[in-house]
Design brief:
One of its GO terms (cellular component) is membrane. The chain has 715 residues and is α/β, with parallel strands linked by helices. Helix content is 31%, strand content 17%. α8 (224-237) runs antiparallel to α11 and α8 (224-237) runs parallel beside α14. The structure holds iron/sulfur cluster (SF4). Residues 13, 15-16, 18-20, 43, 47-48, 50-51, 180-182 line the site of iron/sulfur cluster.
């Protein structure tokens, strides 16, 4: 209706974990005009190219607009009722015959908190299985596990503002310039204003981020624990220890330090193992020792590793020793990959967690949750983590899987195994906004979901800031919210407790749960508490300003946000203390050899997001890197007999793909970089996931995306 007024809606970017505020100005009949929201503290009006191009991605071509069901081998359009009956009936009969662990949900850090909350309640409280995992397993689960070991709960202590208040920023395994661009802009500005701010980049690749760095340590892939154990040992030896803090607020230092000293007490040897210049290593150790206000930010180079959890703890150990946590300008800082990986963690979206940061292995908390939900049962053992989940599907112990807002046939390691699994699976349900992805082609039931700009709810970014995503476009075709589809299936399976009117009602329940029996009866106090936000009226939820949790309500009725945790030195372990974790260094699971002599590293390109189902629609984003590439060192190219600009084949023990050779200039000898974005839907099947080894971290279950042995040959 062209007579409708022009309207500006404040919402949140659906891509990376910075969680920028976006304003969308909608004039009927035209593409929404996208701008940065100057009132959002995360970005203060800035947007990166991906966020700025959001308007171009809202076109409807390729959208899944109607439910579909498989009949005699092919898909046909169906009504919602028929599709939902098929899902509910299929789940119910499989559960009746094989038990609750024979079904599973595989969800996504792209979901809103409200969708995520309902999915988790459905599985853990009503189906009675913890077989719900999320693609955050591929992204943040090592940080989650590291936080729980160190702090007693999955908590990010600091705020983005700390990057501006720090005197040293250490970026570990993070191409911040490309993957968290507006945060990088803040660092850039801070350094311009105050050139004494030291930036250290620790990354095997010389990325765009390194251009800002005063010091770049191009570590050998997988050796981060040696580097940080070496730092811990160095700091202790040089008396850089906050003895009062360590004595009052921590435990476990002796073991951690003995472990660090054993392998990493000699910086010269650490430099050899990490393959970095010993003088540069010492410069880093000396700089860290001399600077109190240090932020150590880490991302996928740390998480996506078979020793990812130990890497996280090795970093945190150095902050605990020096008491550099809980105060402005300092602390360990996990940079979240996805827009709502944090929100998913809050509602227990991982197979080894419960809602509201309650613990699966804590019987009092399990009881509290079951009572709150008035649920017939509660999962009492961890479910299958992503890689194991799809193995169980192939082996046949999981017979039905509902995949929501993610594309595991492209994004999981050993992705051809996922294809085999879905081909064998009795019932594959896929909820998506896109009709044809590598994963949707294996669906028995397809459910059309709402996309960004159409759906309504909340997300939480890396600094614990809860922001609203608001709808400003009508639902296309018959697309519906994911929470609605989940509730409809739950109702059809005879479950009560899924009668939500809207996203606001779900958020209200989530907020109430976070305060439910918190700290009562020996169940332990949970820091994640947003009970101050319960009881909000619908219009207050709609008008909600971005706010960092925990959120309690003050006596005068105002909401109290929390910028920083642990200022008082109190942690979430029962002892109230933080824990040092002894981290014995170990190399990646699969070593290089004569047959596969190069280490494959995977990651993002600047202008694309995940499997390109949205960013791929924007021509200007495609310009930056129009096709998949293999980035390697010219000398390695020579040895492999491949030339820049020509096609080459990359092969691992798990799969192969073809892409064009490039010399980006940032790769050390012995390593190869291939981006994660291209799928089997593009011209050639360039799913790098098919090559990635399925080794996982033993604690977090996070796959080793940064180290797969490969060889390269002319195509
Ligand atoms: Fe979106 Fe991240 Fe870019 Fe911000 S930095 S606009 S959240 S992709």
């Amino acid at each position: 209706d062209m007579s409708l007024p022009v309207q500006t809606v404040r919402t949140t970017c659906p891509y990376c974990g910075v969680g920028c505020g976006v304003s969308a100005t909608v004039k009927p009949g035209t593409i929404p005009i996208i701008a940065g929201d100057t009132a959002h503290a995360a970005n203060k009006g800035r947007l990166c190219v991906k966020g700025a191009a959001l308007g171009e991605t809202l076109v409807l071509d390729g959208r899944l607009l109607y439910p579909q069901v498989r009949e005699n081998g092919s898909m046909r359009r169906a009504g919602w009722d028929e599709a939902l009956e098929r899902v509910a009936g299929g789940f119910a009969s499989i559960i009746a015959e094989h038990g609750p662990d024979a079904v599973a949900l595989y969800v996504s850090g792209q979901l809103l908190t409200e969708d995520y909350y309902v999915a988790n309640k459905f599985m853990k409280g009503y189906v009675g299985s913890a077989n719900i995992d999320t693609n955050s397993r591929l992204c943040m689960s090592s940080s989650v596990a590291g936080h729980k070991r160190a702090f007693g709960e999955d908590l990010v202590p600091g705020a983005y503002e700390d990057f501006e208040l720090a005197d040293m920023i250490v970026l570990v395994g993070s191409n911040t310039a490309w993957c968290h661009p507006t945060l990088f802009q803040r660092i850039l500005k801070a350094k311009e204003a105050r050139p004494s701010l030291q930036v250290v980049a620790i990354d095997p690749r010389r990325t765009a981020t390194c251009e800002l760095a005063d010091l770049h340590l191009p570590v050998k892939p997988g050796t981060d624990v040696w580097l940080f154990n070496g730092l811990l040992s160095y700091l202790a030896r040089h008396g850089v220890k906050d003895s009062a803090f360590v004595a009052a607020h921590t435990e476990g230092l002796d073991m951690a330090l003995a472990t660090a000293d054993a392998d990493c007490g000699d910086p010269a040897q650490v430099a050899r193992i990490c393959r970095v210049d010993p003088a540069k290593l010492l410069a880093f150790y000396e700089g860290f020792a001399a600077t109190r206000k240090v932020v150590s930010a880490y991302s996928q180079g740390v998480n996506q590793s078979s020793s990812g959890t130990d890497k996280v703890n090795a970093i945190i150990n150095c902050h605990l020793l020096t008491g550099r946590i809980g105060h402005p300008g300092m602390g360990p800082f996990s940079l979240t990959g996805q827009p709502n990986a944090m929100g998913g963690r809050e509602v227990g979206g991982l197979a080894n967690m419960l809602a509201a940061h309650m613990d699966l292995d804590n019987p009092l908390q399990r009881d509290a949750l079951r009572a709150f939900w008035e649920a017939p049962r509660i999962a009492d053992k961890p479910g299958l983590k992503a890689v194991d989940l799809f193995r169980a599907v192939e082996e046949g112990s999981v017979k039905a899987v509902w995949i929501i807002a993610t594309n595991p046939l492209v994004s999981l390691p050993d992705a051809d195994q996922v294809r085999r699994a879905l081909e064998k699976c009795e019932l594959v349900v896929v909820s998506d906004i896109v009709g044809a992805t590598d994963t949707t082609t294996h669906a028995d039931v397809l459910l059309p979901a709402l996309g960004w700009g159409e759906k309504d709810g909340t997300v939480t970014n890396s600094e614990r800031c809860i922001s609203r995503q608001r709808a400003f476009l009508p639902a296309p075709g018959e697309a519906r919210a994911d929470w609605w589809a989940l509730c409809e299936v739950a109702r059809r399976m005879g479950f009560s407790g899924f009668d939500y009117e809207d996203a606001h009602a779900i958020f209200d329940e989530h907020a109430r749960l976070s305060g439910w029996r918190n700290g009562e009866g020996g169940a332990g106090r949970r820091v994640f508490d947003i009970s101050g936000m319960s009881g909000m009226r619908r219009q207050d939820y709609d008008a909600l300003e971005p706010i960092q949790w925990p959120v309690l309500r003050a006596a005068d009725g105002t909401l109290q946000a929390t910028a920083r945790l642990f200022a008082d030195g109190r942690f979430a372990h029962a002892s109230g203390k933080a824990r040092f974790v002894a981290t014995a260094p170990r190399l990646p699971v699969h070593a290089l050899d004569d047959e596969f002599p190069l280490a494959l590293n995977t990651g993002r390109m600047r202008d694309q997001w995940h499997t390109m189902t949205r960013t791929g629609k924007s021509p200007r984003l495609a310009n930056h890197a129009p096709e998949p590439l293999i980035d390697l060192h010219p000398n390695d190219a020579l040895l492999c007999g491949v030339r820049e600009g020509e096609l080459a084949r990359v092969t691992s023990r798990w799969g192969a793909m073809v892409a064009r050779v490039t010399h980006g200039g940032g790769i050390a000898r012995g390593s190869v970089f291939v981006p994660i974005h291209w799928s089997g839907q593009t011209a050639s099947d360039a799913r790098v996931g098919a090559l990635v080894n399925p080794a996982v971290d033993p604690v977090s279950g996070e796959p080793e995306f940064k180290h797969t042995p490969v060889r390269i040959e002319p195509f």
